[in-house]
Amino acid sequence: MQLPSVKTDIQVRYSDIDAYEHVSNSIYLQYFDSGRLDFFSEIERIEGMPTFVVASIHIDYLIEVSPNDTVWVETWCESIGKKSLRVNQNVYANGECAAKGIVTLVGFDKVKREAKNWPEHWRPSVGFSEANKLAED
């Protein structure tokens, strides 16, 4: 299966803005959550929703995002192992990359409360995508 690359439009809310009149650093996590929700919703549409937990998040902030900016998140799978999935996410403001995020997800069995393998047929499909090209610009 080819894992999707998903663009999620973000509405900057009044509550997202901090005392410096730009989007607060903590809000980017919510933007990434919205992007991952759309990413996994697209997978669910194709074959059902996998269960997972977030193992780590890394964010590099590049430029500020202001209240009137046009904002979106691009989400795609960078790599996948047996139990972990590495998702890249970029936040864009007016077409310029404002932040880059890497989120490591681990497949999770809700009944046994332990890590589980991702579907085997996902692994060969991961590779260089259009989203990766956007991230390099």
What does this structure look like?
Strands 1, 2, 3, 4, 5 and 6 form a six-stranded antiparallel sheet that branches. The longest helix is centred in the first third of the chain and has 21 residues, at about 25-45. The radius of gyration is 15 Å and the shape is elongated. It has helices at about 25-45, 130-135; strands at about 5-10, 50-60, 70-80, 85-95, 95-110, 115. By secondary structure, it is an alpha+beta fold. The chain has one domain (about 5-135): Thiol Ester Dehydrase, Chain A, CATH 3.10.129.
Q: What is the fold's blueprint, element by element?
A:
Layout: E1 5-10, H1 27-47, E2 52-61, E3 71-80, E4 84-93, E5 96-109, E6 114-115, H2 130-136
Antiparallel strand pairs: 1-3, 2-5, 3-4, 4-5, 5-6
Key phrases:
137 residues; alpha+beta; Thiol Ester Dehydrase, Chain A; 2 helices; disordered C terminus
Characterize this entry briefly.
With 137 residues, the protein is of the alpha+beta class.
DSSP summary, beta strand count: 6
Structural class, by secondary structure, is alpha+beta
The appropriate CATH architecture is Roll
Please tell me how large the radius of gyration is: 15 Å
Count of distinct structural domains: 1
Straight-line N-to-C gap: 27 Å
Please name the fourth-level CATH homologous superfamily.
Hotdog Thioesterase
User: What is the CATH topology?
Assistant: Thiol Ester Dehydrase, Chain A
Task: Profile the largest sheet.
Answer: 6 strands, antiparallel
